[in-house]
Amino acid sequence: MSNSPPRGFPPEEFEARTAKVQAEMDQAGLSGLLLMTEAEVRYFSGFHTLFWQSPTRPWFLFIPAQGKPIAVIPEIGALLMRQTWIDDIRTWPAPNPGDDGISLLTELLSPLASQSASIGVLKGHETALRMPLGDYEHLIAALPGLQIKDATGLVRSLRMVKSPREIEKLSHICAIGSRIFERVPDFARAGTALDEVFRAFRRAALDVGADDVPYLVGGADQGGYRDVISPPSARPLQAGDILMLDSGATWDGYFCDFDRNFAITQADDLSRRAYDVLWRATEAGLAAARPGTTCRELFHTMQSVIAQMDSAGGDVGRLGHGLGMQLTEWPSHAAFDDTVIQENMVLTLEPSLSYGDGRIMVHEENIVIRASGAELLTSRAAPELPVI
Amino acid sequence: MSNSPPRGFPPEEFEARTAKVQAEMDQAGLSGLLLMTEAEVRYFSGFHTLFWQSPTRPWFLFIPAQGKPIAVIPEIGALLMRQTWIDDIRTWPAPNPGDDGISLLTELLSPLASQSASIGVLKGHETALRMPLGDYEHLIAALPGLQIKDATGLVRSLRMVKSPREIEKLSHICAIGSRIFERVPDFARAGTALDEVFRAFRRAALDVGADDVPYLVGGADQGGYRDVISPPSARPLQAGDILMLDSGATWDGYFCDFDRNFAITQADDLSRRAYDVLWRATEAGLAAARPGTTCRELFHTMQSVIAQMDSAGGDVGRLGHGLGMQLTEWPSHAAFDDTVIQENMVLTLEPSLSYGDGRIMVHEENIVIRASGAELLTSRAAPELPVI
């Protein structure tokens, strides 16, 4: 696309991220950080590949107290890793069930273990252990003295606030997402099967510049859909259906995540009203989402509008979240989350409600937080339920 | 597509899988199996959604010694899970960092803990712990007496051998993959940027019936490519390039995984020779892949042909693997893997070699093992390097 930002990041981006995390590690008394998940390895190294789709091989990035991160990775990734800013790349011929990087990690971490030093791993909310649990247990057992601490808060606080270059990428993919949704009336018509609508959506995404659409869910049913995470059925759209499409498209490894609702041929009054309530809940969220507000306050602001129609709220668990290299990231707009919203966070506002006979409706917009408040990255949904 | 097999599986498929695993659990002295990864949850329940793209929420499926599996999942998934054969569905309003399913799991597992019973979790090769490690540690600590054993071997042995309905789906997506590759000469021409080739490949995949292309990598360079896991550059294809595209397209949650090589305008002699060696290594693999052969033997059979040009072999670590709900599955065609090949395994044959000045070439075909030997699921690559 002619107006695309550059792909990738210059080395100073990774230097800055690493310097920030090392300052926080110092404060937390951590002599290192052992990372193994796609987003974290990419965040600190720039290593970007779809090869993570294969569950076979573990990949490790170790951030020492000072200096550049150290990659401990399968040999198949060496050439790509050498194109990043990382210098110290240690490889083994993977897969090797008997020793998938464990000797290399043991060698790397032994000096720290002999000092009874502490290292951080991600053990907290929204994280996973992307290596065999048995290997992790063996590694820890081979390093007596090494203290393992949860570094989730530290990585979370860093990744939640986006850099200008990250915001540029997120802005680009959100604009692409808006252009995809503009085309929905061209292909979502009465008589078209929902799975064909999905296929046309993916085609439109490629046409307007998305790299990929890793996430696409939705629903359509008479007077409202009932589920928001299903794959598409082959049922043809019918007059009176409410159609929702929710997409996580990507560009250069960054996601948009928003949805749009449409009525096919005609809209019932209850769905119109649900739409209006959610549109206004989003407006309230847009006004409230500014530096200094907590996610809990943002949640209650949106929830108080939703309560005009649904006192219980939907069952989706929260009313929005962080957005970036992953479809959903920290924080959560939920009663449990007291995260203070900061400038340069990129967030979704995702109010939902239940109505009628087990129907659900979900709205979603993507925003970036500026000093003055929320700035939309998506083209704002129409104020009234659009009829195709 | 008019010739598509049915989507999903009838309940008897899940009954059979569950009965088989319960028989193996009985032999292994396991009173339950706690699963939390997408493929395993789907394999035993039929729960199929792209929502796993969001890392926020954990999902659990518990297989008791007798009876149907029990789902312990976020409320947002309840409606979709109720459409499967599962009856016992326990939900919580997720995300909830303070208790993301842990109380529900503790309640479920406490009776087993009080009997000092053993349960299985996946701790072995090619597995991950898809829940926060901290939550896992809290769960185990809350269940004194409960014995945790590695059940990787048990699940592996079951999933490696595909059912007729699974083979039908895999055959369908491999045929779709072959139709995509037939179109490559239409859009991969000198002057076309590699990222545009990728985009056209994804479009072609949708046109010929794929649901999605979660995995697409490749390379192109003068006289041979150097890397097989990179995202595409914007460099235009040039006369004398060797282009490789390697794709994991999906249909109904099942993958194909194979690649094709092309020369742009003209082919150099060394690349022609590398192609010929790999084509013959694949032929040797096709002849050797039959019930009773080990993966190690299959590896050595292909490696002995590859050694005609490259005594070290490539750096990709193995010469093929299992294929199914994941892009790569157990087993590995590698010297370490003594798995005995069985009827109804679906496998890739993926010989690779290094040549020239740091070039690499990879071939790949997908097969199903019949009583009489290997049956190709992909349209066999041309015996000579195709020139576009």
TrEMBL record, chains A, B:
Gene3D superfamilies: Creatinase/methionine aminopeptidase superfamily (3.90.230.10), Creatinase/prolidase N-terminal domain (3.40.350.10). Residues 17-161 form the Creatinase N-terminal domain. Residues 169-368 form the Peptidase M24 domain. It holds the Pfam family Creatinase_N. This is Xaa-Pro peptidase family protein. It comes from Parasedimentitalea psychrophila.
